[in-house]
Amino acid sequence: MICPNCKSKMIKDYCVKCGYMNNGNFITKEIKENNKYLDIRLYNKNFDSMQHNQDVWLIVILGPYYFSYRHHLILGTILGIIDYIILKFITIISLSLSNIAYINILCGLYFSAFYLIVTRALYIFSSNIICLLLDKHYIKKIRKKCKNYKKKLIKHNDTSVVYILISILINILIYKILMKLL
Questions:
Q1: Using CA atoms, how far apart are residues 65 and 74, in angstroms rounded to an integer?
Q2: Which one of 23, 50, 117, 133 is CB 3.0 to 4.6 Å from 128, fit for a cystine?
Q3: How confident is the model at residue 41 (pLDDT cuts 50, 70, 90)?
């Protein structure tokens, strides 16, 4: 059989010279990547591990500051403040219960540990999803602003310990201000 594309001899339903197949497709050496996730893979180098929810230990250790680590400083700072306020509230309630009902102070530690376990489990299940949604939103913004947005996506660093430190310092300043007001 002769190839209709390059007029050379076809072997077993495909052309060895140009890659034409009888069904009309071509065999190419290029591997076409899934374009659906191309931009977010350029923007977030850890996309695959985040999509499969790997590195759970990092989420457990950092808690709300995991968002700051992934360059979502405002969300990490707000969740850090909320986490601190709730933990403080739990300790105040447990200490007042220990004075009233003669419950041991260990009960306060149990309540705090239970709270930390529950919140860390929630962070494990939701933090990567939220980070990827925010990343997609930022990619849309970058795409609208820049003509050559792919270079900007490649230059983006998706993790930063500095953002964790900034978030913790902001939280400490807010705690100090709240303590003076109360």
A1: 10
A2: 50
A3: confident
User: Percent of the chain scored above 90 by pLDDT?
Assistant: 35
pTM of the full predicted structure?
A: 0.73
Q: Of 84, 155, 153, which Cα lies nearest the Cα of 115?
A: 84
Q: Which amino acid is at 133?
A: L
Find the mean pLDDT for residues 130-140.
93
Amino acid code (one letter) for 124: I
What's the whole-number mean pLDDT along residues 1-22? 79
Q: Which of 45, 82, 48, 40 shows the shortest CA–CA distance to 63? A: 82
- Cβ-in-10-Å burial (0-12, 13-18, 19+) of 144 comes to exposed
Q: Rounded to whole angstroms, how far apart are CA atoms 3 and 55?
A: 51
**Under 8 Å between Cβ of 43 and 139:** yes
Cα 131 from Cα 12, distance rounded (Å): 49
E-strand ranges in 48-163 read: none
Tokens of 180: 């003076």
